[in-house]
Amino acid sequence: MKKLFSELDLKYKLAIIAVLLGVVALFAGDPYSGTSVKVNVKDLALSTVKSSDKINPTDLADWIIQGKADYILVDLRSPDKYAEYTLPEAENIPLVELPNSDLLRNQKIILFSDDEVAAAQGWFILKAKKYNSVYILEGGLNGWKEKVVFPKVPANPSKDDLAKLEKKKAVAQYFGGDLVTETTSTEVRTEIKLPTSSVVPQTTQPNTGGKVTAPKKKKREGC
Amino acid sequence: MNAPFYKFGLFNSDVSLIIAFIIGIAFGFALERGGFGSARILAAQFYFSNMRVLKVMFTAIVTAMLGLYYLSVIGFVDLSLIYISETYILPQVVGGLILGVGFVIGGYCPGTSVVSFATGKLDGLMYILGLMFGIFIFGEVFPYITDFYYSTNMGSVTLPQYFHLSYGLVVFLVVIMAVGAFALAEWSEKKFAHRNPENQL
């Protein structure tokens, strides 16, 4: 057999090799391996119009404090930024790796990045891959900081507001921030912004003061 | 390391031009060495006496196809990132026929005319001038044929998608088609050997 092959002309050898490779190709699989998907554009557009795919940061803060665990938080930013600051219990899956992630389709997934753009892209990717309950954190981490960690309050709040503000303050302090009165906002913000960078996922005890001593990093893998 | 290199940002668009230049030179060299600088050999294709064009083209197709297929199966190339030009079936059929007629009359296709001129052939130069003139004419009449030019768009469609076959099966069928075409070409060259310009020289 080997002798027979070596006696052949080069062109016949090449032809035989090509045919063999062609036969192997029959069983070698699909080279696109799931990188392209079909999308029901109307379905996607409708769910966006209804704005039912956004999670308000205040709601999320409540869920975190209540210890709700029926969702999974996904940080789409780079690992560097993730190490710097992220939300409690958030899992880091950079956007490019999202299509190949091992997220389960029956999980409630909340995506976030610094703003909404990357999260929206991730949302589209997952929706296109038939993930049903995918949500975006409204305003991203920036929105989170503004609404939850350092919420702005009017300098002279009315009586009705006071009760709400108390709650806001408790929530903000839980996450290592504080209320920011609008008059002094710029100054105060730069001053207390510092602890933000050291705030890392921690779900144990609510902080009592505005200042935070960097707690030990505690990230849960998966869900 | 993953391909396509440009899409994965291994080099920028300036460097890509240099790479394109190198590949272009290599392509021209391969065409010349393949005998594609001779209008006699090229035109003989249409009289079935010298099937070199078909053999070289089909060899290139099969080599590229098997290479890309297996490189993507092992994960080196991401096929989904490779640009596939769109199919406008009717205008492309008409354009292909016009190019074919020009091929028989002039004895070259656009690429091979440049190859032949590079080796000093004057008919190659004439062909290039004709080519430029054709481009000029096309540019002038383009406003009147724009509708036709963009008609029957099928998108970036590939054979496996269009025929709903698996990629492996299409690879196999193209290989079989190529081998069959080679066998047919050999037979035809024998039958029309008296007309083969290579035998007359």
Question: How would you describe the overall organization of this protein?
Answer:
- The complex is a heterodimer of chains A (223) and B (201).
- By secondary structure, chain A is an alpha/beta fold.
- Chain A has nine helices and seven strands, in the order H-H-H-E-H-E-H-E-E-H-E-H-E-H-E-H.
- Chain A has helices at residues 2-7, 10-28, 41-49, 57-66, 79-84, 117-128, 140-149, 159-174, 185-198, and strands at residues 54-55, 72-75, 91-92, 109-112, 134-137, 152-153, 180-181.
- Chain B is mainly α.
- Chain B has one domain.
- Chain B is built from nine helices and two strands.
- Chain B has helices at residues 13-33, 39-44, 52-73, 89-106, 110-118, 122-149, 159-163, 167-191, 197-200, and strands at residues 87-88, 153-155.
- The longest helix of chain B is centred in the C-terminal third of the chain and has 28 residues, at 122-149.
- The chains are: A alpha/beta (223), B mainly alpha (201).
- At the A-B interface, helix 2 of A face helix 3 and helix 8 of B.
Taken in chain order, the helices and strands of chain A follow as: HHHEHEHEEHEHEHEH
> What's the end-to-end separation of chain A, in Å?
57 Å
Strand order of the largest sheet of chain A: 1-5-4-2-3
The largest sheet of chain B, given as strand count, sense and whether it forms a barrel, is:
2 strands, antiparallel
Count of domains of chain B? 1
Which structural class fits the helix and strand makeup of chain B?
Answer: mainly alpha
What's the alpha carbon Rg of chain A, rounded to whole Å? 26 Å
- Identify the CATH architecture of one domain in chain A: 3-Layer(aba) Sandwich
**Count of helix runs of chain A:** 9
Q: Which regions of chain A are unreliable across 5 or more consecutive residues at pLDDT < 50?
A: 185-223
Helical amount of chain A: 40-55%
How are helices and strands ordered from N to C of chain B?
A: HHHEHHHEHHH
CATH homologous superfamily annotation of one domain in chain A: Rhodanese-like domain
Structural class of chain A: alpha/beta
Estimate the global geometry of chain B from the Cα principal axes: globular
